[in-house]
Design goal:
This protein is of the alpha/beta class and about 350 residues long. Helix content is about 45%, strand content about 15%. It has two domains: about 130 residues, Response regulator (Rossmann fold, 3-Layer(aba) Sandwich), CATH 3.40.50.2300; about 130 residues, Response regulator (Rossmann fold, 3-Layer(aba) Sandwich). The strands form two sheets. Strands 2-1-3-4-5-11 form a six-stranded parallel sheet. Strands 7-6-8-9-10-12 form a six-stranded mixed sheet, with helices on both faces. Strand 8, helix 13 and strand 9 form a beta-alpha-beta unit. Pfam families: LacI, Peripla_BP_3.
């Protein structure tokens, strides 16, 4: 079967070739009735326009780049990355955009690789994971007036356009839940203080206690490397206190896993002796014993929102949007639920 041409589509739809071209570009000068008729003919004839050729004419690549680290074993340790990608792709595909992964480890050092990608118009915009963000990169894109959005709240003051889960609110929800269940000595186990992500959740935790008029005991706040082993060590330090906590907010599922191991090795029970709540419903919360209560962050939605914001900025270069926060959701399970 010979390949259908735009000329044949125009003839079948009884319009000019230029009209078909304008329909493919969704030009506002073409009526909805004509667009519908032309698109129906395209579908009947199985005509698929050459996206690359169209993008060359329109000075658009119809391609979005995402700057994200993808190292060995990263899928397990940062499983939310793939949910974010799914959310981004779901929006881009609806708008005839493709997604290109830009791995900083493969691109090389410095800003030159990014500038080359931008100047060659290989992408129309960038989505940057906050873990790969630095001031120099942002300054470069601002100088080039290039559209981008950051996933995650930057650790430095800026006028950047970014989107994130409201981690302070998430921490507050977690602590408030424990207090509402009747626990009176909640602790927090997180990453080192300079970790912006952990710090925001800890701030929310402290805010919840302050709102209830409770004193924040600094002995109950543990900060350190968040491997499963060290999380267990931090939990053991809490259990060794003269008055150990009766509940713990864990930074993530991996911290919670180490905490559970430490509690069980002491012959203690969850939640009878120590209650737990963590963050993110995926990947471990439903497979622990007991199942973990969590403050769930919809990172698929985070990705889709980031894509929508970027497409809006591409369509309207003067759009000013500094940040957007998504609210988390509480899921209560056995690890924190007090027996009646």
């Amino acid at each position: 079967m010979s390949k259908i041409t735009i000329k044949e589509v125009a003839k079948a739809a009884n319009v000019s070739i230029s009209t078909v071209s304008k329909v493919m570009s969704d030009a506002p000068t073409i009526s909805d009735a004509t667009k519908k008729r032309v698109r129906q003919v395209m579908e009947e004839l199985h005509y698929y326009p050459n996206v690359i050729a169209r993008s060359f004419v329109q000075q658009s690549s119809k391609n979005i780049g995402i700057v994200m680290e993808l190292k060995r074993h990263y899928a397990f340790l940062n499983s939310h990355i793939y949910e974010i990608l799914g959310g981004i792709e779901s929006i881009l595909s609806q708008n005839d955009y493709s997604l290109t992964l830009l791995n900083p480890s493969s691109l090389g050092e410095g800003l030159d690789p990014y500038e080359k990608i931008i100047r060659e118009k290989r992408v129309d915009g960038l989505i940057i994971h906050v873990a790969n963000l630095n001031k120099a990169l942002c300054k470069k894109m601002d100088a080039l007036h290039f559209p981008y959005v950051v996933i995650g709240q930057p650790a430095f003051e800026s006028n950047l356009c970014w989107i994130d889960i409201n981690n302070k609110t998430a921490g507050e929800i977690a602590a408030t839940h424990l207090l509402s269940e009747g626990y009176t000595r909640p602790a927090f186990i997180g990453a080192p203080h300079e970790d912006h992500f952990s710090h925001n959740r800890q701030m929310g935790f402290c805010s919840a206690l302050e709102k209830k008029g409770l004193t924040i005991d600094r002995e109950y706040i543990m900060e350190g490397e968040t491997s499963i082993e060290n999380s267990g060590n931090m939990m053991n330090a809490l259990l060794d206190l003269p008055s150990p906590p009766d509940s713990v907010v864990c930074l993530n599922n991996f911290v919670a896993f180490g905490v559970i191991q430490a509690i069980k090795k002491r012959g203690l029970k969850i939640p009878e002796n120590v209650a737990l709540i963590s963050f993110d419903n995926y990947p471990l919360s439903m497979f622990t014993e007991p199942q973990l209560s969590v403050v769930d962050n919809d990172v698929f939605e985070l990705g889709s929102h980031a894509a929508n914001i970027l497409l809006s900025k591409i369509a309207n270069p003067n759009l000013q949007m500094q940040y957007s926060m998504l609210l988390p959701n509480l899921i209560v399970r056995e690890s924190s639920r007090k027996a009646d």
